[in-house]
Each structure stands twice: as C-alpha cells, then as structure tokens.
Amino acid sequence: MRVFISLFVAVVVLAVPSFSSQCLSQKEVTVKKVRDVLEPVLGGAKVVSVRKSPVKDLFEVVIEARGRKIPVYIDCSFNFLITGEVIDLKEKKSITRERARQLAEELTKEKMARLEGVLGKEKVEKLKKALGERFTDIKIVDTKKIPEKYLLLIGNPAAKMTVYVVTDPECPFCAKFDTQMQEVLKNRNDVKFEVILFPLPFHKHAQKIVQRIVCEKSLSKKKEVLEESFEAVRNRDEEKLEKLGKECEEGKKAIQEHLAFGK
What does pTM read for this prediction? Predict the structure, then answer.
C-alpha cells in the first residue's frame, strides 16, 4: 500500500500492523520499531526520528520523502498512523505546521553547510538567491557514480562546465527543456550537456526509444533520434514516437544501470 501524505488539507487515519494491543511506553517506542511498522506502507519514505508529541499517547514520527522531512503521528499501540494537522486549540495554532516549518529550516541549514563545503559560501548564496524556495530541492550527487558508459554528449566536448541532464525522450517537460538547452548551446561554447537517458515506466514508447538511442553506432545518429523524439512529443505525434523505438539488449542493460543510479 502506498501512502500519499497531505499535511494541510485533511487528517487521514490508517490502520497499520501492530506490535501490541497495549500502549507502549516512550522507552519502548524506538526508531527501529517504528521503521519496521511504517516503512512497508510509506511508499519509499524513510523514518528518521520519533519523539513524544504534545498529545497524550501519540508519537510524532518524522519521515523523509523526496528530500523533505514531514511530521506524521502514530498511536502508542502502533495500530494507527495519522497524517494531517494537530491543532492546539488553546494556543490556536497548528503544531504540525510549526513543526514542518522547523524541519524545513533545519534541512535548509544542513544543505547549505554541505553545499558550502563543496562550492564555497559565495556560490551557495548566489544559488539560493536564484532558486528561491526551490533551493531545498537540491541534492548532492557524487558524479563518480554516474554511469558514464551510456551518457549522451551534447555540446562542446572540451567545454569547462558540464550540466548533467536526466531525461526521458517521451517527457513533455524534457522536450521543453531540450529547446532551452539548444538555445544555450547556440550562445555558449563553454558548456556541455551530458544526458542520462531515464525512461519513465508510464511512458509506453520511452523504453524502446532509449534502447534504440543506446544501440545506434554514431553519436550524431543518437542525438538525431533523441531530437526526433522530442519533436514528436512537442507535436503530439504518437505515431512517430511508436516508429522511433527499437529493442536491443545493450539498450536494456543501459536502462537498468540508469534506473539503479536514479534510485
């Protein structure tokens, strides 16, 4: 079962597997126990901390999902998971909302410290100013772990700056970004793009198109197929997308490597 959490819209109570029918003490409610109960139903989210909430017999569980930390709640008998706002009626404020704000601030500080160690304080401040609220979406990736064998080079191979692009040949947003990327390359020779082909499972033509791109012999032909695919997406040409795909074993291997890296 996959749980989608919406903090500020509604309260959802879900039954979860229970360790006990009786209320556990604060000492017994450990991160490990909560992980064992919740992570199988959280759809990839991870339990990072547990503490007593202001509500009797209710524990606050902080989960991490898609680079964000979110407070949810579990009862002391581990029978129910509660996602939604806890309101302090006396103070007339949302305890959940306040905690979510604190977690976001902590995460931003942690991220800034890590980025400053890599980029330096001045560059991080510029990045934060440019991205605004999207700054917290930044993730630090070890480029040594990128599967280089199947990268698709677009631009000047000798360029000093490299932008890694994770793309799906059937993705409308990727097709839009492709036009912006081409504009950059028209005006600058000091930037190159390394494309990581990442077909999403709900795009029915993407898998075969990526396989064909990987198995084409020349770089120019690989780029040509990718551009044709993006053009077909922009024109909503389903027939063209279907014709572009072709199965090949090397392409399947590349997809598995890229999906593993994406996780």
Answer: 0.63
